[in-house]
Design brief:
The protein is α+β, with helices and mostly antiparallel strands. The chain has 4 helices and 6 strands, in the order E-H-H-E-E-E-E-H-H-E.
């Protein structure tokens, strides 16, 4: 079964880091992704640009409304994801616990719906 691990990070925690700590944290994300790849479970992964670069689209009463930035002010923002394939949820939860985002934010785990 395929699962998505979604990284939700506290942007203020990242911006409060000293440059060396920030680089070390980013290195931990790279190492985490490499470990998933080396274990053979990784099916895809991407890092997102900061939430303030987003554009939110809404359709209301026949009108398209565009808003710069995320939909709402959040303590944590969606920072990236990993898609993994594993036999069970317990295995994936162990991977999620190793994700650096769990140290200063959260990692949301969901199974992917098989379409078609």
């Amino acid at each position: 079964m395929r699962y998505i691990l979604m990284s939700h990070v506290d942007d203020s925690a990242l911006t409060a880091m000293e440059p060396e700590e920030f680089q070390a944290t980013m290195g931990r994300f790279v190492s985490f992704t490499q470990a998933l790849a080396e274990s053979g479970v990784l099916r895809g992964a991407e890092q997102l640009q900061p939430a303030d670069t987003a554009t939110t689209v809404r359709n209301r009463q026949g009108e398209v409304l565009l808003t710069d930035g995320p939909y709402a002010e959040l303590a944590e923002s969606f920072g990236g994801y990993w898609i993994v394939e594993a036999t069970d949820l317990d295995t994936v939860l162990k991977y999620a616990a190793d994700c650096p985002a769990a140290d200063f934010g959260s990692v949301e785990v969901r199974s992917l719906a098989e379409l078609g």
